[in-house]
Amino acid sequence: MIESKSFEELIEQYRDIIDDVSFPTVKEWKSKHAGGKVVGMFPVYTPLELPHAMGMLPVGLFGAGGRVEIDHADSRIQSFVCSIARSTLELGLRDMTKDFDVLWFPSICDVARNLSGIWSSNFPNQQVSYIHFPQNMTSPAAITHYRTELRRLLSNLEELDGKKATGAAIVSSIQAYNQNRALCEQLYAIKRDTPWLLSTYEAYVLLRLATMTPVEEHTRILQDILPMIATRNRKPRDYVRVMIEGSFCEQPPLELIQVIEEAGCYIVDDDLLMHTRWFHGDVMTNGDPLLALAESYIHQSRYSSVRHYGNKPRKEQFVQKIRAGKVDGVIFNAPKFCEPALLDYVVLKDELEKQGIAYLAFEYEEKMGVFESIRTQVETFVESVLFFS
Ligand code: SF4
C-alpha cells in the first residue's frame, strides 16, 4: 500500500518494476483482462490514446537497458546501430515480447524504419504498423495527413479486436492522458523550481512507470506521491542548474543520471521519456478527437531531433527552454550511433557558443558499466560553470 511506505521506499519499489525486462505489469494486466490486447510502442510520439480507447494497454518499448546479452539480434540488424534497436529486437527473439499483440514503430529515423520491417518478417503473429508522421509541418495538408494516419492505426486495432472505438471512448482517453500529463508536468515544475526536493533519478523512475502501467493507475500513483514530495526535508545545495539534451529516444543508464547529479548538478530540464509528455498542455476534447490529436502533434508537441519543426527552428526552441529553466549549462547526452541526436548536436552546440552558454557532451550505450570518467568530466564542468558565473 502506498500510504504505508516512504517516498524513498516507493521509488525503490518502482525501480525494481522498471528494471524487470520480463514486463511484469503487462503480465499482470493480461491476467486481469482475458483476451485483452497489448500494444508495444517504440519511441517517440506514439499516440497512446488510440489503444487506450480500444480498451488495450499501450506499453513503451525502450530496449533492454543492458540487462540482456545481444546473442541473436546481430544476425538480423547491423551491430553499428543504437542499443535500443538491437536490444528491443533481442527481447523479441528471446520470446520476451510474446505478450505484445501489436507493435508500432514511428517514422523517426532509418533505424526505426528498418526495425519495423525486420519485426514484420520475424514475428508474423504480431500486428506491426509503421507510423508516417507529417514531414512538412507548415503544409495545410499536414493535419489532414496525420489524422488519416491515426484513423488507419485505429482501424488496424479495430480489425484485430473485432470491434469499433467510439468517438466518446477516444475523447475519454484523451481526457485520461490530459490529466496524467498535467501531473507529469507538476513533477517537472518541482524539478525546475525546487530541484533539491526531487532528483531527476526519482522523477525518471516515476515517469518510466507510466510507460508500462495503465494510465489511470499511474495517475493515482502521482496523485498520492506528489504531496509526499512537498514534505521532504531536503535543503538546497550549491549545485549548478543543467539541462540534458539528446536522450529523447534510447534512454541512458539510470546510473549515468545519478552520476551527473552526484557530481553537483540539478538537472532542471531534459528530453528524457517523451512517451507520455510529448504535448504541451491539453489536447482539445471538443469536436473530432482524431483531428484534435493531429492538431496537437503539429502545434503542441515538444521539439526533438526526430520531429520536423515547421516555422520555429529547433535551436530557437532549445534556447527558449534553456532560458525558461534558468539553466547554467547544457549536457549533451546522446546514444551512440543515434544519427538524429548527433547531427543536431552540431547545430545546437554552435548556438550555445553564440549565446555564451557552457556545455559538455558525451555518448552512452545500454551496456555501459563504468561511469568514473564521466563523473570526472561533469565535476570539472561544474567547477568551470561555478568559476565563470
Ligand atoms: S536512438 Fe536514435 S537512431 Fe536509434 S532508433 Fe532512436 S532516434 Fe533512431
Description:
There is one protein chain. The chain is of the alpha/beta class and 389 residues long. It has a domain at 24-163: Rossmann fold (3-Layer(aba) Sandwich). It has 14 helices and eight strands. It has helices at residues 7-19, 24-32, 49-53, 83-93, 110-122, 141-161, 167-193, 200-210, 215-230, 254-262, 289-300, 314-324, 339-355, 372-388, and strands at 38-41, 57-60, 102-106, 127-131, 240-245, 265-269, 329-335, 358-364. A four-stranded parallel β-sheet has the order 2-1-3-4, with helices on both faces. A four-stranded parallel β-sheet has the order 6-5-7-8, sandwiched between helices. Helix 13 (339-355) links the parallel strand 7 and strand 8. Helix 4 packs parallel to helix 5 (110-122).
Residue share in helix = 40-55%
Mean pLDDT: 95
Order of helices and strands: HHEHEHEHEHHHHEHEHHEHEH
CATH architecture of the domain at 24-163: 3-Layer(aba) Sandwich
- Poorly predicted regions are none
Spatial gap, N to C terminus = 46 Å
The radius of gyration computed from the alpha-carbon positions, rounded to a whole number of angstroms, is: 20 Å
Number of helices: 14
Structural class: alpha/beta
Q: Major sheet, described briefly?
A: 4 strands, parallel
Shape: globular
- Which hetero compounds are present in the coordinates? iron/sulfur cluster
Please count the beta strands (DSSP E, at least 2 residues each): 8
CATH topology of the domain at 24-163: Rossmann fold
Question: What's the CATH class label of the domain at 24-163?
Answer: Alpha Beta
What portion of residues belong to β-strands?
Answer: 5-15%
- Strand order in the largest sheet: 2-1-3-4
